[in-house]
Write a structure and sequence with these properties.
The chain is built from 8 helices and 2 strands, in the order H-H-H-H-E-E-H-H-H-H. A two-stranded antiparallel sheet has the order 1-2. The relative contact order is 0.08. Strand 1 and strand 2 form a beta hairpin. With 233 residues, the chain is mainly alpha-helical.
Length: 233
């Protein structure tokens, strides 16, 4: 059987991507946003966006294998070569992989690929679930803590209205709720300015948090409770 240069180059390139990602992930290298790479899919997206596969790998490999790859290989040898480069399922080692875990890149067979959404292996799914549980609990406890602080502080009290504990607690909770809403749906940030401009910027953002949070706080509380219940199911 005759091997083709393009096929051999592609197989080696696919293996190289896993090796490169594993090295980068283990070394804790940061991406352009100064954050650590979290998954193979993120690395592949960055690779496709910042580099040209044909220029980066293919040209070098074609030159390396030029005149060597297009040779006659016996059936037994080509079978071993295909086995070496073919990814099998992480859970069922005898089954060929048809997909990869979105987080770690492990190969998954059709049965395993349909188990979770998005496509994940069981260890990565459990890891995500644990993270979701802690995030949900933290969000709910943050809302409760802010309300308790505001309630005990009673910072909205005036001479005419001395008992404003409930309102004080609600406003503090609303600030956090407004912050979550603004950061998710209005992600505009000032990049540069004078000290006075920065002060005005933060004052405006704080007021925006309060105004929006007054309306969104009840929904944020309900959503936090729902996330905690869902995470434990």
């Amino acid at each position: 059987m005759i091997t083709n240069t393009n096929l051999l180059t592609d197989r080696i390139y696919q293996c190289l991507k896993f090796v490169i990602f594993d090295s980068i992930y283990s070394a804790g290298v940061l991406n352009k946003k100064q954050k650590r790479l979290k998954s193979l899919s993120e690395f592949l997206g960055m690779l496709g966006e910042d580099f040209s596969e044909s220029e980066l790998f293919y040209d070098i490999m074609h030159k390396s294998f030029d005149g060597v790859a297009d040779i006659m290989i016996e059936g037994k040898v080509i079978l071993n070569t295909l086995i070496d480069y073919t990814m099998n399922c992480f859970n069922h080692t005898q089954e060929p992989a048809v997909a990869q875990c979105s987080d770690c890149g492990k190969g998954l067979c059709p049965e395993c690929a349909e188990r979770y959404q998005p496509i994940l292996c069981t260890p990565c799914f459990q890891k995500r679930k644990r993270s979701e549980i802690w995030r949900s609990i933290f969000s709910l406890l943050s809302l409760i803590a802010l309300f308790v602080i505001g309630f005990r502080w009673n910072f909205l009290a005036t001479k005419g209205f001395e008992d404003m504990r409930w309102m004080s607690g609600y406003v503090l909770m609303a600030i956090w709720s407004g912050y979550l809403f603004v950061e998710k749906y209005i992600p505009y940030k000032m990049m540069a300015g004078t000290n006075g401009q920065w002060i005005v910027y933060y004052i405006v953002k704080l007021l925006l948090f309060v105004v929006i949070g007054v309306f969104t706080a009840p929904f944020t509380c309900l959503w936090a409770v729902f996330r905690v219940i869902k995470a434990f199911r």
